[in-house]
């Protein structure tokens, strides 16, 4: 029974680490996407930091990336930048790769 319990704890610990890493990657990705959008909107450094945090917080509204896409498309369009969902989703994918790379180098 001890071996089974040890295995179960190991799987639970791995799952927990994997979920934490996925959360950190998504948060980092959203920050990077927020910085990208802020640059497009020509925001100041302080505004860029605040906007990147707002994009990270927007992801907590619902599951998936739709809430982030809606925020970015809405804000960029309001700033007079022509963009659509597909463009934003492409940037999200690109920034996920960058976020993963950044987090892996930190480990």
UniProtKB/TrEMBL annotation:
InterPro entries named among the record's database cross-references: ATPase_inh_sub_z, ATPase_inh_sub_z_sf
Pfam families to which the protein is assigned, alphabetical: ATPaseInh_sub_z (PF07345)
Protein name: Aldolase
